[in-house]
């Protein structure tokens, strides 16, 4: 599959660069605003609001509904130009309307997420939200343009464009620190000027990455124009598909709201919104690099095979993708769990804060393998135009996640709330993928899940000793109080030492893991090695 290999290589390279610069952006951001504190959490929640809306728009409408439709439209004589002109006209108007409504609701949205915040913290969060919510429009257009590029097999720009956002933000936040100073984690340290500058930097980065995609649009070979004649483009069919997708993502949004409400009580001295989001950022590093780079081209191929009725090839794609992803994500999860404290130190202000934040990261990492499988299974349903079934198993997952999250304050103190809720999220994801796989089996017949589960089991058995070896090195180096955990040495920044320590631990785990798989001649190792060679351009 040379086309998939080239597409995966392009996406992987862009994703790695994007995530690497994203980590640097997060470090600079935390330096400016802190990781623990009421002001830090107020900004984090406000800046997350556009992302919540973006997730509904991108995953709920664009990925689930429009990509398969765009693939079908592209097979027409005009390459889909007529329908895409109508779609982009409608999409632009819809994004503007959603952005306007979100800004009107800003005070209520902040009050909803910061349920246990004091009035001053809510006021600061609302002020930040007014500056951050215009991102909704640009996020929406970014997703619409990017997914259209992907559907037209122009995979690179969507993966590479976020680098521009990161660079703009890094420069902006660094300038903010130089001019105004850093560690502004307390409410009294902010005034309207500082709020406007900080929020403006964040939003301008999203604007910049959207402009980059516009520049690359010509590679689709399509010329669009405003077209308000929406009759005849199949809005009825799209509406039926989108209804379930929106319902599914809204359910996910409810889960996020409940989780933020539960952990908001810990805001100030304990791990809360900022730690939660930084832990999620670290978790998303392997997920994006591995799952998105390999899974996105598979989704386009799944849509093509499904639209042509080639079910056998769809089943083969599913099994191959799960096993390929599994080999990589299993060791990624174990390696990051071992390096949780050093990885968390990069996004916190001290070793003590890193130790407090590490359990949140570990809680998320428990779901890395289930989510990788879920990515493929869910998109198989999308490839067949089925958005109702994904809603059903997402509602099932949401019920478990909400129920467990609401129980956590009765069991754990504020210092452990965020970690407990993160682990509950992982448990619900595992239950979701089990149900989703069973439902897909009912639809398509045998998916070879037995083979895939056995492969994942073998990968896990190989990853455990690899993780033990890396953890032994961490303990021998001094554990949580060592340089690996970010304890400064002769003026060397603790964050830098922690990053190096996390890299060393990860490398040890990976080397041992590969050696064990090679020793037992795991057949998937050769397949993945070939994929890696393609990803590196060899």
Mean model confidence by pLDDT: 83
Largest sheet: none
* Total beta-strand segments: 0
> Could you name the ranges where pLDDT drops below 50 across 5 or more consecutive residues?
none
Helix content: over 70%
Q: SSE order in H/E notation?
A: HHHHHHHHHHHHHHHHHHHH
Question: Using only CA atoms, what is the Rg?
Answer: 23 Å
Please count the helical segments. 20
Distance between the termini: 15 Å
The total tally of domains equals: 1
Determine the structural class based on helices, strands and strand pairing: mainly alpha
Portion of residues in beta strands equals: under 5%
- The general outline is globular
Pfam family, one: MurJ
Subcellular location: Cell membrane
Main location: membrane
GO biological process, one term: lipid translocation
Q: How would you characterize the overall build of this protein?
A:
The chain has 538 residues and is an all-alpha fold. It has one domain (2-535). Helices cover 80% and strands 0% of the residues. The chain has 20 helices and no strands. The chain has helices at 2-33, 38-74, 81-104, 106-113, 119-132, 135-151, 156-160, 162-180, 192-216, 235-264, 273-307, 311-338, 340-345, 351-365, 368-383, 388-411, 414-444, 449-476, 494-519, 523-535. Helix 1 (2-33) packs antiparallel against helix 11, helix 1 packs across helix 20 and helix 11 (273-307) runs parallel beside helix 14 (351-365). The longest helix has 37 residues, at 38-74. It starts with a helix and ends with a helix. GO terms for molecular function: lipid-linked peptidoglycan transporter activity. The chain crosses the membrane at residues 20-40, 52-75, 87-108, 128-146, 158-181, 193-217, 241-259, 279-300, 321-343, 355-377, 389-412, 418-441, 453-476, 496-520. It is found in: Cell membrane. Keywords: Cell membrane, Cell shape, Membrane, Peptidoglycan synthesis, Transmembrane, Transmembrane helix. It is a multi-pass membrane protein.
């Amino acid at each position: 599959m040379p086309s998939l290999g080239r597409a995966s290589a392009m996406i992987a390279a862009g994703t790695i660069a994007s995530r690497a610069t994203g980590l640097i952006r997060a470090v600079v951001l935390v330096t400016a605003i802190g990781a623990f504190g009421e002001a830090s959490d107020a900004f984090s929640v406000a800046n997350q609001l556009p992302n919540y809306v973006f997730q509904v728009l991108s995953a709920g409408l664009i990925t689930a509904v429009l990509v398969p439709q765009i693939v079908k439209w592209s097979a027409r004589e005009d390459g889909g130009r007529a329908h895409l002109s109508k779609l982009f006209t409608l999409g632009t108007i819809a994004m503007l309307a959603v952005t306007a409504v979100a800004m009107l609701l800003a005070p209520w949205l902040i009050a909803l997420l910061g349920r246990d915040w004091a009035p001053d913290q809510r006021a600061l969060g609302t002020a930040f939200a007014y500056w951050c919510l215009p991102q909704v429009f640009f996020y929406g257009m970014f997703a619409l343009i990017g997914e259209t590029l992907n559907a037209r097999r122009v995979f690179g720009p969507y993966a590479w464009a976020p680098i521009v956002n990161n660079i703009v933000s890094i420069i902006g936040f660094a300038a903010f620190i130089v001019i105004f100073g850093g560690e502004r984690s307390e409410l009294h340290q902010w005034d309207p000027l500082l709020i406007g500058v900080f929020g403006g930097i964040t939003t301008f980065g999203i604007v910049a990455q959207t402009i980059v995609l516009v520049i690359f649009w010509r590679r689709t070979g399509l010329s669009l124009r405003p077209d308000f004649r929406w009759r005849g483009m199949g809005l009825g069919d799209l509406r039926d598909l989108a209804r379930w997708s929106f319902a599914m993502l809204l359910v996910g949004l409810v889960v996020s709201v409940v989780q933020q409400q539960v952990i908001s009580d810990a805001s100030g001295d304990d791990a809360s919104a900022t730690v939660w989001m930084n832990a999620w950022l670290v978790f998303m590093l392997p997920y994006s690099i591995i799952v998105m780079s390999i899974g996105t081209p598979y989704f386009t191929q799944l849509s093509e095979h499904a639209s042509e009725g080639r079910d056998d090839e769809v089943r083969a794609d599913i099994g191959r993708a799960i096993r390929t992803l599994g080999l990589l994500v299993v060791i990624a999860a174990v390696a990051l769990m071992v390096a949780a404290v050093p990885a968390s130190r990069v996004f916190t202000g001290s070793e003590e804060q890193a130790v407090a934040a590490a359990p949140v990261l570990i809680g998320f990492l428990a779901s890395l393998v289930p989510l990788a499988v879920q990515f493929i299974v869910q998109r198989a349903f999308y490839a067949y135009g089925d958005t109702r079934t994904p809603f059903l198993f997402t509602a099932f997952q949401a019920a478990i996640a909400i129920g467990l999250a609401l129980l956590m304050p009765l069991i754990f103190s504020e210092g452990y709330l965020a970690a407990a809720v993160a682990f509950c999220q992982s448990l619900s994801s595992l239950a979701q993928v089990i149900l989703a796989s069973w439902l897909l089996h009912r639809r398509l017949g045998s998916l070879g899940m037995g083979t895939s589960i056995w492969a994942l089991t073998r990968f896990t058995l190989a990853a455990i000793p690899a993780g033990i070896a890396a953890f032994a090195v961490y303990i021998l180096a001094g554990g949580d109080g060592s340089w690996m955990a970010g304890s400064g040495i002769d003026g060397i920044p603790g964050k830098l030492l922690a990053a190096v320590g996390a890299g060393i631990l990860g490398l040890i785990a990976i080397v041992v893991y590969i050696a064990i798989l090679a020793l037992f001649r795991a057949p998937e190792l050769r397949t993945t090695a070939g994929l890696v060679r393609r990803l590196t351009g060899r």
